[in-house]
């Protein structure tokens, strides 16, 4: 496994780690790695933020990364009309109006089911979309987007744009 570590900026202690031609942002507080800085920021807010975060629900322990997500949660989880239709997880405070979402939550969070396995490495995940993202990020040999300033390549335009913004 090819592994290289660099600091993203001088003032930040976030590490950008290259594993098998793919770059990941490492959390400063735990071993979590994210594909983008924005996903790392969401992880940090949900996992490591203090109780005084501005996006805490006043009716339950739900935390949101944005004010819009908090408003959506409050409208769904705490409005009188929806409360009677709400399905609650028996193992935590999660709730949803959809039974399928509750089943998915229990399988992913509590049972830690990961039925989708990569055919090229030991990676496993609970969702097909995560497996597709992993295959593109870690195993695609040559992407459709090739950087002319370095040897970076990717199959997605958004990843290529981020690369150009962040490194060139």
UniProtKB/TrEMBL annotation:
Superkingdom of the source species: Eukaryota
PROSITE patterns: ZINC_FINGER_C2H2_1 (PS00028), ZINC_FINGER_C2H2_2 (PS50157)
GO cellular component, as recorded: nucleus
Domain C2H2-type: 25-53, 55-83, 87-115, 145-168
MF annotations from Gene Ontology: DNA binding; zinc ion binding
Keywords, comma-separated and alphabetical: DNA-binding, Metal-binding, Nucleus, Repeat, Zinc, Zinc-finger
Subcellular location: Nucleus
Subcellular location, principal: nucleus
Protein known as: C2H2-type domain-containing protein
Organism: Nezara viridula (Southern green stink bug)
């Amino acid at each position: 496994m090819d592994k290289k570590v660099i600091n993203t900026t001088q003032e930040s202690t976030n590490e950008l780690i290259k594993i098998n031609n793919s770059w990941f942002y490492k959390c400063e507080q735990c071993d979590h790695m994210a594909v983008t800085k924005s996903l790392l920021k969401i992880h940090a807010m949900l996992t490591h933020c203090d109780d005084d975060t501005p996006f805490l629900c006043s009716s339950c322990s739900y935390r949101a990364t944005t004010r819009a997500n908090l408003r959506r949660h409050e409208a769904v989880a705490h409005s009188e009309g929806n409360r009677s239709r709400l399905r609650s997880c028996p193992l935590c405070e999660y709730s949803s109006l959809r039974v399928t979402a509750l089943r998915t939550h229990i399988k992913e969070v509590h049972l830690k089911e990961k039925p989708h396995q990569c055919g090229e490495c030991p990676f496993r995940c609970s969702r097909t979309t995560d497996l597709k993202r992993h295959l593109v990020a870690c195993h695609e040999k040559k992407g459709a987007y090739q950087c002319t300033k370095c040897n970076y390549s990717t199959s997605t335009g958004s990843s290529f744009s981020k690369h150009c913004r962040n490194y060139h």
